[in-house]
Amino acid sequence: MKVLLRAVLFFDAVLDLLLGLLLLVAPVSSLYTALQIPQPQPALFGQLLGVALIGLAWLLWKATVNGQLTVAVARTVGHVNLASAGLVLAWMLFFDMQLQMAGKIWLAGLSVVLIFFALVQIPAAKRVHLREKQQREQEAEARKGQKKPSGAANGARQTNDPDYRQEPVITPPPGYGPGTEVVTEPAPEVTPSANHARQNPHP
């Protein structure tokens, strides 16, 4: 989906660049006469709009090659394209623009292309945004899982291990346990008595 979004942004950048160059030569009336489209009056306003469109084309190109800008730029430009197409159609249908047949074809085709760009950019940007948000949440949960202490993990593995058996704890009765052992005193050494020494003929 993001690849499709970048492709649409690229073609949108090309279209805005061409329109910007066309508006920059607004003082050249012969070009507009040949294309049978209305000439901006005064020409200064057309040139200012041309500069803005060239800047927008550069931004669209940056969003095409830089993935961090793709979603935000596509979402904004999609609404701009939709509003621009609505204005062009409104002027063609409800205002007297004195258009010839070729001019009507040019402006109608421009409106259709802008609507197509908007219908791709707005929902695609929303889907890519949601997917990237889910990926960030999953990566954050994975990092939290890796930070858990190893002892707790080993204990959890041993508890879940079917071969692991915990030995029962035996509690000794009162009076038994550490410090209550009965220590037997050693038997006193038996020393020979004095009479025994006198009775021995060979001391």
Question: What would you say this structure looks like, in words?
Answer:
The chain has 7 helices and no strands. With 203 residues, the chain is mainly alpha-helical. The chain has a domain of 141 residues. The protein is 71% helix and 0% strand. Helix 3 packs antiparallel against helix 4 and helix 4 runs antiparallel to helix 5.
Keyphrases for this structure?
single chain; elongated
Task: Briefly summarize what is shown.
The chain is an all-alpha fold and 203 residues long.
Distance between the termini: 115 Å
Residue-averaged pLDDT = 80
Q: Tell me about the largest β-sheet.
A: none
How large, in whole angstroms, is the Cα Rg?
A: 45 Å
- Structural class, by secondary structure, is mainly alpha
The best one-word shape is elongated
Helix-strand pattern? HHHHHHH
Uncertain runs: none
Fraction of helical residues: over 70%
> What's the total number of strands?
0
Estimate what percentage of residues fall within beta strands. Answer: under 5%
How is this fold's topology laid out?
Elements: H1 2-24, H2 29-35, H3 43-65, H4 67-94, H5 101-146, H6 150-160, H7 194-199
